[in-house]
Write a structure and sequence with these properties.
The complex is a heterodimer of chains A (217) and B (236).
Chain A (H helix, E strand, L loop, with lengths): L10 H7 L6 E3 L13 E3 L3 H11 L6 H16 E3 L4 E2 L4 H4 L4 H18 L10 H13 L4 H9 L1 E5 L4 E5 L1 H5 L8 H17 L18
Chain B lengths: L11 H8 L4 E10 L5 E8 L3 H23 L3 H5 L2 H16 E7 L2 E8 L4 H7 L2 H18 L7 H12 L10 H56 L5
Antiparallel strand pairs in B: 1-2, 2-3, 3-4
Helix pairs in contact in B: 2-4, 4-6, 6-7, 6-8, 7-8
The chains are: A alpha+beta (217), B alpha+beta (236).
């Protein structure tokens, strides 16, 4: 099933939640050996999901093993310790040392968390249309007007053949190279541009010319 | 200038992994004999970590391919998909790892570090299909007890246990996949039934509470009416 936007988050908050460089979602699961250490799941670029799938799918390996490996790679790449500013696990192999009963709970929470903060175009995991609809609502919300304007300013004017064009510079807003941008950033940006277009005032009408005085016959 | 030596710092994940206790369960068995001829009375089933589980599956898939090509020749694909072969390879590899001897340490029974049987090949040569299936049932029952996915209550597990543990069920000659599907299905339905029962119990309790409140109110009305009748001035 494709994951849509979380139903319990209002659209304006949902749109804002995608704006940080790496959005995080706090988990209720904690290491039983360190119960005071909060854990979060951190959004990652789609490339991480793609590489996890590629590494897992070695030739000749049964499908269920490949899926389990992919799941472990995703947990290793996204589970984050905010207090220490580092990933919780060193590698997917280390995640594999967690017994299945604990891993089921952990992986369930991590994947649910990712569905909330990390929409992605990769692998059909996300219901993109539903996200676009919710994000457009969020970007159009008056509370987010200032952020939309900041985004809309990150453009360059380029001379086209017949007219001037706008070159969108997402990398300037987030100060990240394009390869590091999240799919959530792209979605939020597209929603903001659409909201800006909608809210822009209509182009001014040309001034009406006064009627020429009628000649008296 | 010398490069500082890299020192691995132990993290929260390391502490968690070290603190884990390997899930296990001890079962009484009959009709099993060790390689040295001694009778096996108890067996400990331990659950492997996912990495070991994957290794077992991948190793078994390799064996399965080898056997299928030996037996099937050109038509090896149908032999590869044969459920019986699946049991002979994957299940036996897994069973060899999970079946452990039981040791008694200070009055507490624990699984030992030694496998209960000599090798997967020894198991293939010396155990009957029924015995494999009995062990496989115990393994599935242990998995079901420690699985978090469908939360199984003690009562539900007690209801499932005869199906899983009794040797009668091996007569059905089910393959490993079918057996696992049945266990998953049974666990799911049992879990659903448990949930519905709890909901019914809650609804009944709510009804009883409401009835008790109603009775109280009626009794109070009757008392008030009696008081009113007593307080009413007589017309005589």
């Amino acid at each position: 099933m494709r994951a849509g936007p979380p139903p319990d988050v209002p659209p304006d908050r949902l749109w804002r939640s995608l704006l940080p460089l790496r959005p995080e979602h706090r988990l209720s699961w904690r290491f039983p050996s360190d119960p005071d250490l909060p854990l979060t799941v951190r959004a990652v670029p789609a490339l991480v999901f793609a590489l996890a799938q590629d590494d897992a799918a070695e030739p000749g390996i049964p499908a269920k093993v490949a899926i389990a490996r992919e799941c472990r790679a995703i947990v290793a790449a996204t589970l984050w310790i905010p207090q220490q500013g580092r990933l919780a696990f060193d590698s997917a192999e280390q995640v594999g040392e967690v017994y299945q009963n604990a891993f089921d709970t952990l992986a369930g929470e991590v994947l649910d968390g990712l569905d909330r903060i990390c929409p992605t175009f990769w692998g059909g995991r996300t219901d993109v249309k539903a996200w676009q609809k919710a994000l457009l609502l969020g970007a159009s919300h008056p509370a987010n007007g200032a952020f939309v304007v900041f985004m809309a300013e990150c453009k360059n004017m380029v001379a086209g053949a017949t007219k001037m064009l706008w070159d969108e510079r997402k990398d300037r807003y987030w100060n990240l190279p394009a390869s590091e941008l999240l799919d959530g950033h792209h979605l939020a940006w597209a929603a903001a541009m659409k909201a800006k277009e909608k809210s822009a005032p209509p182009p001014p009408k040309p001034p009406e010319r006064p009627h020429p005085p009628q000649r008296k016959r | 200038m010398t490069t500082p030596e890299y020192k691995y710092q132990e993290g929260a994940a390391d502490r968690f992994i070290k603190s884990q206790v390997q899930p296990f369960k001890i079962w009484k068995v009959s009709d099993f004999v060790r390689a040295n001829g001694a009778e096996l009375v108890k067996i400990a089933i331990v659950l492997p970590t996912p990495v070991i589980d994957d290794d077992i599956i991948a190793k078994a898939a390799g064996h399965r391919m080898k056997f299928a090509k030996q037996r099937g020749g050109d038509g090896w694909e149908s032999a590869f998909n044969d459920q019986r072969l699946h049991v002979q390879t994957e299940a036996i590899e897994a069973l060899w790892y999970v079946c452990r001897n039981v040791v008694n340490e200070g009055g507490v029974e624990k699984p030992s570090n030694f496998a209960a049987f000599m090798s997967p090949d020894w198991m293939r040569q010396n155990l009957r299909y029924e015995q494999w299936m009995a062990l496989y049932n115990l393994y599935l029952a242990t998995c079901a007890e420690f699985s978090k996915a469908p939360r199984i209550s003690a009562e539900v597990m007690a209801a499932l246990r005869p199906f899983l543990a009794e040797n009668d069920s091996v007569d059905a000659r089910l393959s490993g996949y079918e057996r696992q599907d049945i266990v998953n299905m049974a666990a799911h339905f049992a879990w659903q039934a448990d949930k519905e029962t709890k909901a019914c119990e809650a609804a009944l309790k709510e009804r009883d509470d409401a009835e008790a409140k109603l009775e109280d109110a009626l009794r109070r009305i009757a008392e008030l009416e009696a008081e009113l009748a007593a307080a009413k001035p007589t017309t005589d």
